[in-house]
## 1
Amino acid sequence: METDISVLEQRIGYTFRDKALLHEALSHSSYANEKKKQRRSNERLEFLGDSVLSVVVSQHLFQHFTDLPEGELTRLRAALVCEKSLHGFAKQIGLGDFLLLGKGEEHTGGRERPSILADAFEAVIAAVYLDGGLEAARTHILHFIPATLPQNSAVLFGDYKTALQEVIQKNPEEKVEYLLTDASGPDHNKSFVIEVCLNSNVIGRGTGKSKKEAEQMAAKEALSLMGYET
């Protein structure tokens, strides 16, 4: 556990005037319950941070993807603010090192739990917002949003098979198949080669340590060859 919150302030590029806000944002309910009235949990801040995050990301997508319809904007936003995404953002700044957890959560791996890290990330957003206003929160949030975003939300998290399927579905008569063409190596370190075919024509090839990984790599190559950003 890291106790010097100035290190966290350096990582997020924001210095709090009211340090108590940051302490509250880092206080999990398990810790607050142990301290009883001495400490508030970050749950209320998480509630506010969720809304601030949604507003900032929505405006960013609205301004930068002027040709996308409402449905695609909604899907992109959902991909950026989901637990998996926020967990990744939290890990970028080592947020788990600064969390204040109860003994039970501490001993059961709470610092690495995606839901706890995602909630704390939203709570920190709210703390920045309350301490420095919307522009400070916007600057903090956009630091984690990639400069360029693929228009297909599935690509954001490496789900290339889903992204490829969504592209192909625009033409219902088309059929995609994944074929295993090679498997080599000992059982503990196998390598698989998968080809993805569109109407029997090979459109991508991928290699991985599992069939699923090889399929994703084959789909990624197919998307790239079709001109989609991956």
## 2
Amino acid sequence: MTSSITISQTVESSPLALPVVETFHSIQGEGMWAGTSAFFIRLAGCDVGCPWCDTKQSWNPKRHPLRTLEELVAEARSANPEIVVITGGEPLMHDLSALTGQLKEARLQTHLETSGAHSFSGTFDWVTFSPKRFKPPHSSIYAYVSELKVVIGDEVDLEWAEQQATQVSSTVAKLLQPQWETPGSRDKVFTYVLKHSQWRVSLQTHKFLGVQ
């Protein structure tokens, strides 16, 4: 499902430039597209504050340079990936309409990884929605979800996952991902999926492989 919605800027950016933590070409390590050649654009800025976040350096957008959309699109095109993943941080803190518009003009498939904590914007071929209890999702996200992927550390997270699942389409892929740093979370997820067949297991395969 695609959309293009304009939102107010909540961090320093402009229609032609965005604060970027890093770009890199690797494989998609998680979710339904795991193993796919992917070019990642990691945008700076996040106000969700997950304590176990492995990219806390992305939280403060002022620590990262603004990069032009033209530069980002050219770099993505030269990588020749199957998909371009816009991630963060929390990418929806920015209006993604212009960036995704230029990526689509370059005939690149656009994916979004988001907690959904801010209003939806942009045009995407796939939206991975990973809601967090620390900052509940904005209501605009639910209509655009392709994949619901919930990180699980304890029983409360499982309850949160089921609550979120009731708000997305029945056709949406539903995945539970063990929290990497939490002992026992993998067993908890595996056991739950065996008893609840509407869910799948998502693993951070890039960490097992030792790649970015």
## 3
Amino acid sequence: MTITGYGIVSRAAGEPARLEEMLIEPPGPGEVLVRVQASGVCHTDLHYKLGKIDDKFPYLLGHEGAGIVEAVGEGVTEPSVGDYVILAWRAPCGYCRFCAIGKLNLCSASLNAQPRMFAKEDGVPLNPALGIGTFCTHTVVAARQAVPAPRACPPEQACLIGCGVMTGVGACLYTAGVRQGSSVAVYGCGGIGSSVIMGAKLARAGTIIGVDIAGNKLTWAKEFGATHTVNATETDPVEAIKEITGGNGVDFSFEAVGAPQTLSQALWSRDLAGVCTLIGVPDPTMTLDMPMLQFFGLGGSLRVSWYGDCLPSRDFPLLANWYLSGELDLDRMVTRVIKLEDTEAAFEAMERGETLRSVIRLP
């Protein structure tokens, strides 16, 4: 039966998102209904609200979520009603040309539920951000998007595994393949960049350099495991990184901002044959001018990390257990715990650079 819930809805680009009552249909075949317990407020949700992703308004915002399965659709054998799950915005189909060759992280037909959430006031279907929509009391997702997780991992921490933390840690461990004892530079030390730093620490990198223009973010970088920090307002970060690394540059650089200037700096911060990984999402208007001979002469590679090249069914429980063993500091990642109606204020705090993550906690 259709139930009533509440969600944060963005109706038009640039306008404040608001709390709305919504109708949630029961899950269809291959789908599950999840009662959301917590959701992280990610920068991608702000992009949706500002109309920088596309213009398929109204959006049900949110894509970092954890909660309890309350109903399952026809044919669903896992997860089960009552399971504690972390939601994934990508779920491999198992059949596309990439899944068929074992590259499930590149699935070209990632699973999503059919439209099941509607605004109560006008009956308009709500477009869930990244296919899941988690700033709400309940959401319907494809069954494979609901990944069972250890119950000992609290919802406030578990939800962050669903996007930001997984993206950063995965970019380090899977996309770039950071080696033990290697050197790493991370441009942008917000939520994603701090997660890259944690990933580099997990990989046992020898030198981890955090680069940012905000003093509080450089402090966070140190707390998460950076061995050095560089304030890019005070010095040329490329030169500073080379000085730290004996004039060579780093083996691995990461761009977690999504801007041409920082991507260029990340590229030229590398040692010979070094790997640069782009994680930050650029604005659609951005372009990169590159001296091709210099790029060729330095060698190595420029990679793009989508969702940290993760496999949620494998990696979400892994990261949750790393948190429980003390190897992944998700407690420090939670800057504020807020109510659903405080989401707009959380976006404002994010834009001011005050938070790593505000986390919505639902009763």
## 4
Amino acid sequence: MLPNLLLALFAAFVVSELATLVTTLYLHRTLSHRALALSPGVTAACRVLTWITTGIRPRQWVAVHRKHHAYTDVEGDPHSPVLLGVPAVQFGNVALYRRVAKDEQVVTRYARDLPPDAWDRVFFDHALFGLAIGIAILCLLFGLWLGLLAAAVHTVVYLMMSAAINALGHAYGYQSNPNTAHNLRWLAWLTVGEGLHNNHHAAPTSARFSFEAGEIDPGWWVVRLLQRTGRAVVRHDGPVLKVAS
């Protein structure tokens, strides 16, 4: 029983990391900022994985994130710890996200380039259906109760890591660039590079978040692998250098 329990918990962490990877690769770097373009096959895989591991509607996620960049740490930011406090964002990020994601005017304004297609209408807009498939896969692998436990642990881990990017990433760490976000190298390891949040706000359209020695962006490793195998085209991969006049 104990080995199966440990295996289920390990699987929950792996699924959370996979969901975080798809979030940063597809929802964030590709859709939100157009930092890269993915091949049709990789795009299809990302859409399915997003659906069964998170239930997120991409256009809603993109709209919330783009609004965050438009109003970073000022009135209008959907989830600023500067305005709301770190605990409110760390533990209430889901509610803060949903409040903006359900606003059709916000989604239309900030994600007008991502209208729903036939696949969205039939499959990907039905979050509970996708999540049920993901949970069913875990239950088939580990049995009913361990599968449900793995699904619950995955949910908590994924949501807490996502919240930490917004909460801790705008409150703690070092700032190499003049913006209100912060870099946390340990968080970057857990969130596939997203913890380098100060770097990201300095160059939002960069597919790479690591700019200095010692900064690690595992998501960039995946981007480079896809690029080298012809499955991704990178727009640019570093900060925009300002030329002195």
